[in-house]
Amino acid sequence: MVFTTFLFASLVAVAMTLTSTVVAQPPPCVRTYTVQEGDWCDKISAAMHVSTYQLMAANQGAINPECTNLWVGQVICLGRQGQDCTSVLVVQPGNTCETITALVPGLTYAILRANNPNINEACTNLYPGEVLCVQC
Question: Residue 21 has what pLDDT?
Answer without folding.
Answer: 57
